[in-house]
Amino acid sequence: MMAVSRTEPNILITGTPGTGKTTLGKELALQSGLKFVNIGDYAKENEAFEGYDDAYECPILDEDAVMDGLEDIISHGGVIIDYHGCDFFPERWFDVVFVLRTNNTVLYDRLVQRGYSGKKLEDNLQCEIFQTILEEAKESYATQIVHELPSNTWDERHSNIQMILGWIDQWKKDHA
């Protein structure tokens, strides 16, 4: 954990692609005033890639470049990070980790809408079935800071936003 001289927490929102991380993170940032960083967008803006994965038809993230670039931003606190992986981020960066989970039928429809097909579609569905991101989070961070949230409907998203805003308020009180 980082030295708590920060006045605002750092939050990681993670989960399989299509679970609603970006939608949730942007809305949370809007309502909380915290800074939102989508790692995919950050990597594009800062050219933090180390190649291209032909099988998944996507760039390969340069994790070291991302971490080096974000270190200063994270150290000040008040950041919501959104990414589908979590095991490469230092544990000290985050005060809480929210892992979004989505029913496979809902997730399938979302991914197809995004244009996923073949291996990319199947592997992401398998990732959700086997709770790969949830297990990765539990192995990478203290279990008491890792929380699994359902992300199937707009009502669940609204409920998640309200719960996380409450968590942020409590964190601020506890660290005032």
From TrEMBL:
User: At which positions is ATP bound?
Assistant: G18, G20, K21, T22, T23, R114
Where in or outside the cell it occurs: the entry states: Cytoplasm; Nucleus
Q: Which GO terms describe its cellular component?
A: cytoplasm; nucleus
InterPro entries in alphabetical order: Adenyl_kinase_AK6, P-loop_NTPase
Nucleotide-binding as a keyword of this entry, yes or no, is yes
Q: What is its main location?
A: cytoplasm
The segment annotated NMPbind runs over: 38-61
Q: Which UniProt keywords apply?
A: ATP-binding, Cytoplasm, Kinase, Nucleotide-binding, Nucleus, Ribosome biogenesis, rRNA processing, Transferase
Query: Catalysed reaction(s)?
Result: ATP + H2O = ADP + phosphate + H(+); AMP + ATP = 2 ADP
Q: Where is this region: LID?
A: 113-123
Q: What is its EC number?
A: 2.7.4.3
Q: Name one GO biological process term.
A: ribosomal small subunit biogenesis
Q: What molecular functions are annotated in GO for this chain? A: AMP kinase activity; ATP binding; ATP hydrolysis activity
* UniProt family annotation: Belongs to the adenylate kinase family. AK6 subfamily.
This chain's function reads:
Broad-specificity nucleoside monophosphate (NMP) kinase that catalyzes the reversible transfer of the terminal phosphate group between nucleoside triphosphates and monophosphates. Has also ATPase activity. Involved in the late cytoplasmic maturation steps of the 40S ribosomal particles, specifically 18S rRNA maturation. While NMP activity is not required for ribosome maturation, ATPase activity is. Associates transiently with small ribosomal subunit protein uS11. ATP hydrolysis breaks the interaction with uS11.
Q: How does it assemble?
A: Monomer and homodimer. Interacts with small ribosomal subunit protein uS11. Not a structural component of 43S pre-ribosomes, but transiently interacts with them by binding to uS11.
Q: Which HAMAP family match?
A: Adenylate_kinase_AK6 (MF_00039)
List the PANTHER family: ADENYLATE KINASE ISOENZYME 6, POS9-ACTIVATING FACTOR FAP7-RELATED
The protein here is known as Adenylate kinase isoenzyme 6 homolog
